[in-house]
């Protein structure tokens, strides 16, 4: 039986206040972001720059994408590990996804679009690019706030200049029968941060520090979830922990979502200001792409914490 006090993720409104850096609205939101990341490793953001019309157009474009032949979708490959097509996997039979590397550049989205539709598809390309830029805006606000929260804002511009974004386009098929089914296994993200947006079908669940699972309500068309990834956990010297999350689907409709992951292009290290007697160093400097390769090569081992195996002290 579910208790009346079932936990919920914090909801932070990036729309209602002025979010100019240094303003009162910024400072209040920054404290909320730090608290939410430290307590849950993620939170819901309300950001009204996305319209319900744009959302409908984007998800319509995703349906068109996933209706393409499997052999076309399998052309989605990159040299970077885990960036391309995922599907037809008996472990996660209800999951299918594709990736757009460098999604915040028109070249990145156009390259992907031309691969899927050699005859062109301006609607898809423009929708994906617009979404990627919007998700990057949210990510930029959140990461600047985190650097400021820990007094290391002098490193922010260098960090921001090193980031590349991977936009993943995801479909979870409706399960056969009436029972809920696992749409994607419990996992932590390997990114620095992840910004997730979905259609109206709620299926995301997040594990709390106490081991409970929270069902995330994203029914508002202006709702996003921001996750801390393993790289942010390491960078923060575990002031922030990347949360485990999964997808559990039910009902008769397929679920579509978009997740934009940020990756440092080079080395990530714990700022010296975040190491002290109470917080001894827990991670050696690491190459973010190297972490991805390590995770891909060792996925079959089911490591409890790939990042600790890769660069833990």
Characterise the protein shown here:
Helix 1 links the parallel strand 1 (11-13) and strand 2 (42-46). The protein has 313 residues and is of the alpha+beta class. It has one domain (11-311): B-lactam Antibiotic, Isopenicillin N Synthase, Chain (Jelly Rolls). The relative contact order is 0.15. Helix 2 (52-66) packs across helix 5 and helix 4 crosses helix 5. Helices cover 33% and strands 22% of the residues. It has nine helices and 13 strands. The strands form three sheets. Strands 1-2-9-6-11-4-3 form a seven-stranded mixed sheet. Strands 5-10-7-8 form a four-stranded antiparallel sheet, with no helix packed on it. Strands 12-13 form a two-stranded antiparallel sheet.
Task: Give the low-confidence spans.
Answer: none
Number of helices: 9
Share in β-strands: 15-25%
CATH architecture: Sandwich
Provide the CATH superfamily: B-lactam Antibiotic, Isopenicillin N Synthase, Chain
Number of strands: 13
Q: Report strand order across the widest sheet.
A: 1-2-9-6-11-4-3
Helix content bin: 25-40%
Summarize the biggest pleated sheet.
Answer: 7 strands, mixed
CATH class: Mainly Beta
Radius of gyration: 19 Å
Structural class: alpha+beta
**N-to-C span:** 42 Å
Q: What series of H and E elements makes up the topology?
A: EHEHHEHHHEEEEEEHEEEEHH
Give the number of domains.
1
Provide the CATH topology. Answer: Jelly Rolls
């Amino acid at each position: 039986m579910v208790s009346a006090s079932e936990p919920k993720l914090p909801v932070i409104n990036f729309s209602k206040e002025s979010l100019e850096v240094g303003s009162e609205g910024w400072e209040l939101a920054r404290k909320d972001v730090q608290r939410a990341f430290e307590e849950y490793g993620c939170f819901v953001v309300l950001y009204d720059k996305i319209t319900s019309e744009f959302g409908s157009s984007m998800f319509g474009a995703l349906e068109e994408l996933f209706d393409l032949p499997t052999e076309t979708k399998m052309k989605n490959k990159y040299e970077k590990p885990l960036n391309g097509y995922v599907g037809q996997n008996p472990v996660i039979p209800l999951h299918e996804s594709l990736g757009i590397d460098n999604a915040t550049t028109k070249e990145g989205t156009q390259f992907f679009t031309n691969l899927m539709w050699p005859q062109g598809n301006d609607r898809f390309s423009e929708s994906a690019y617009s979404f990627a830029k919007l998700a990057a805006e949210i990510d930029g606000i959140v990461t600047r706030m985190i650097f400021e929260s820990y007094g290391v804002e002098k490193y922010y511009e260098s960090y921001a200049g090193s980031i590349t974004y991977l936009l993943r386009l995801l479909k979870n098929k409706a399960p056969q029968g009436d029972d809920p089914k696992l749409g994607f296994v419990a996992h932590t993200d390997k990114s620095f941060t992840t910004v997730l947006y979905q259609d109206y079908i709620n299926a995301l669940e997040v594990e709390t520090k106490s081991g409970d699972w929270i069902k995330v309500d994203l029914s508002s068309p202006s709702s996003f979830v921001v996750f801390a990834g393993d790289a942010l956990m390491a960078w923060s010297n575990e002031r922030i922990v990347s949360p485990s999350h999964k997808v559990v689907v039910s009902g008769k409709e397929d679920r579509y979502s978009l997740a934009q992951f940020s990756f440092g292009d080079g080395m990530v290290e714990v700022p010296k200001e975040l190491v002290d007697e109470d917080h001894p160093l827990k991670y050696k400097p690491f190459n973010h792409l190297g972490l991805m390769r390590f995770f891909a090569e060792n996925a079959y081992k089911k490591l409890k914490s790939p990042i600790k195996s890769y660069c833990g002290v």
